[in-house]
Amino acid sequence: MILDLIYIPLIIVLGLGFINLFSSQLTDRDQQVLRKLFFFHLLMGTYYCFFIQGDAIGYWRVPKAYTMETFKDGLFNGEGTMFMYAFNYLFSNLLNMSYFSNTLLFSLFGFMGLTFFYIVALQTVPYNKIISGYVLFPLIFFLPNLHFWSSGVGKDTTLFLCIGMFTYGLMKPFQRIPLLVLAGLLSMAIRPHITLFLMVGFGLAYVFGGKVSPAQRIIFSAAMIAVGLAILPSVMEFAKIEEASVEGFDKFATGKAAVLSRSSAGSAIDISSYPFPLKVLTFWFRPALFDVRNINGLIAALENLLLLIVFIKAMRTSPIRAFKAAPFVIKGLVIFLVVGTLAFSQSLGNMGIMIRMRNMFLPGMIIYLMWIFSYEQQLLRNRRTTLKK
């Protein structure tokens, strides 16, 4: 479409301008890295647009037929898919974006989330790690699936932005209340259970402490627990769980696994007979090389192999001790990862859906692994300093 000649350059300008907003927190090198990440992200979005057929087309096509009344109803009364249709009405319908420009716009949203995670890593992890001659950060932020599943039109990209925004906001919560509120409201409208996981994860992180003042710890842990309890009924209704009980969650997980493990699903695997640890490893590190069926699967498998190698190296140090010493933001990301893993590893039987769901938690895992290596180096430096005295 001719409007693409306006929208695409505008999206590029907005992306580069977004990086400049953080120039006071970034070195020239970091800004250059983020520019490379931005164009890599747009490349992944372009690939997603032309080679992946899925829900994203529906999120672009359906709102084109919306009226203003339908839009208002979906925006203020809709949840999940209905809200997402209404949200994208602004771009697909009112701005008359093509599917390509709409995808690049959502790629921009995903990149904004990635930028927030990048800055969190930059400000919380003091020391880098070299593995087999390669510097871990920022190379690990170029993992293809980290970009791929946060570039399509739809819920996954928007939630990726919300989680990054929420995490970044909590680093200076009193100064960034608008970011926290926006992230909370958006995620609540898209997937309320993710909002609940965020409240549980970071609420517990505040309880565990870290370098947080007692007053701030009490205020924000109480606020998050209160928000979590307030949205719990909405989560139950959204997930169609009748009661907040172990039996209720188990019934939901079993039903989900049965539906998603059907042979009709393109990348279905039956996880019902897997022991719990294997379900977790499946959620984190599959597809593996023996699961490969196409080029997308091969890329994902190689990426997972790399992630597994980094994970094993990190686990061979002192991960528990590192967690105890971690800044509260990293603790929150880890607990968020654990809660999400407990929920989704028991209910998802399709690897495509697993990768999409895992992508929301992957930045937290990456930053935690980086922190483990950094903490190990910090301990070594402290020992050397002590020996010299």
Describe the fold and architecture.
- By secondary structure, the chain is mainly alpha-helical.
- It has 19 helices and two strands.
- The longest helix is centred in the last third of the chain and has 27 residues, at 362-388.
- It has a two-stranded antiparallel ribbon with strand order 1-2.
- The chain is globular, with a radius of gyration of 21 Å.
- The chain has helices spanning 4-20, 28-51, 55-61, 68-77, 81-94, 99-124, 136-139, 144-148, 155-170, 177-190, 192-208, 214-238, 246-260, 276-285, 295-315, 319-325, 328-344, 351-358, 362-388; strands spanning 130-131, 134-135.
- A hairpin with a 2-residue loop joins strand 1 (130-131) and strand 2 (134-135).
Explain briefly what this protein structure is.
This protein has 19 helices and 2 strands. By secondary structure, the chain is mostly helical.
Secondary-structure blueprint of this entry?
Elements: H1 4-20, H2 28-51, H3 55-61, H4 68-77, H5 81-94, H6 99-124, E1 130-131, E2 134-135, H7 136-139, H8 144-148, H9 155-170, H10 177-190, H11 192-208, H12 214-238, H13 246-260, H14 276-285, H15 295-315, H16 319-325, H17 328-344, H18 351-358, H19 362-388
Antiparallel strand pairs: 1-2
Helix pairs in contact: 1-2, 1-6, 2-6, 3-5, 4-5, 6-9, 6-19, 9-10, 10-11, 11-12, 11-17, 15-19, 16-19, 17-19
In the predicted model, the low-confidence regions spanning at least 5 consecutive residues are 241-266
Tell me, briefly, the overall form. Answer: globular
Considering DSSP H and I runs of 4 or more, what fraction of the residues is helical?
Answer: over 70%
Assign the structural class, choosing from mainly alpha, mainly beta, alpha/beta, alpha+beta, or little secondary structure: mainly alpha
User: Mind describing the biggest β-sheet?
Assistant: 2 strands, antiparallel
Q: What is the helix/strand order?
A: HHHHHHEEHHHHHHHHHHHHH
List the strand order in the largest sheet.
Answer: 1-2
The number of strands is 2
Count of individual helical segments: 19
* Alpha carbon gyration radius: 21 Å
Q: Summarize model confidence as the mean pLDDT.
A: 86
Proportion of beta-strand residues: under 5%
**Straight-line distance between termini:** 70 Å
